[in-house]
Design goal:
The chain contains six helices and seven strands, in the order βααβααββββαβα. With 166 residues, the chain is an alpha+beta fold. The strands form two sheets. A four-stranded antiparallel beta sheet has the order 1-2-4-3, with helices on one face. It has a three-stranded mixed beta sheet with strand order 6-5-7, with no helix packed on it. The radius of gyration is 18 Å and the shape is globular. Bound molecules: zinc ion (2 copies). The site of one zinc ion has 7 residues, from loops.
């Protein structure tokens, strides 16, 4: 099941990729690692995707550009990208960790169908406002939050007509 995303822009520009590459390079230096051709190829492929990808799925895509890139390299690179804010982990109902790139994206949340695993993204400023409001109340400077809605999508409700779903 592909997990669709909503993007404000239909595709990512070359300039965006260059900028994101700069952020990644700074992070690699900070943690004492080198920029490599493979790591850059993974970043590029990742930024060009439109889905929420598991490490396995990204590995399949990356191999089309460079078949020498191994699963472990993809796995580690995703962790590095998450470490500098270019990627974030999303966990849906199936226990598989997926990633989406956060470069140049508005803050958004997911709603997940617990029957089939389909997900939709939605934007809500109210959630961000609640974060800040609660932060202020408890004298925190908040940096992020997680918020996810679970439910049953329309096609699944139709399929299970007669069977009660809570
Ligand atoms: Zn998303
Ligand atoms: Zn469903």
């Amino acid at each position: 099941m592909l997990q669709k995303r909503i993007d404000d822009r239909p595709s990512i520009s070359r300039e965006n990729i260059r900028e994101a590459g700069g952020i990644f390079l700074q992070h690699l230096r900070r943690v004492g690692l080198k920029q490599t051709e493979q790591r850059n190829a993974i970043l590029r492929t990742f930024l060009e995707t439109r889905e929420h990808l598991s490490t396995e799925e990204l590995h399949q895509l990356v191999r089309k550009t460079d078949p020498r890139i191994g699963f472990t390299t993809v796995y580690r690179t995703l962790k590095l990208l998450a470490g500098c804010g270019l990627a974030s982990e999303v966990a849906f109902h199936d226990g598989i960790t997926r990633y989406e790139h956060q470069y140049n994206r508005r803050s958004h949340h997911h709603m997940v169908c617990t029957e089939c695993g389909a997900s939709v993204e939605f934007f809500s400023e109210k959630v961000g406002e609640i974060e800040h409001e609660i932060g202020r109340k408890h004298h925190y400077v908040t940096t992020r939050h997680t918020f996810q809605i679970y439910g049953v999508c329309e096609p699944c409700r139709k399929k299970t007509n007669g069977r009660r779903i809570v």
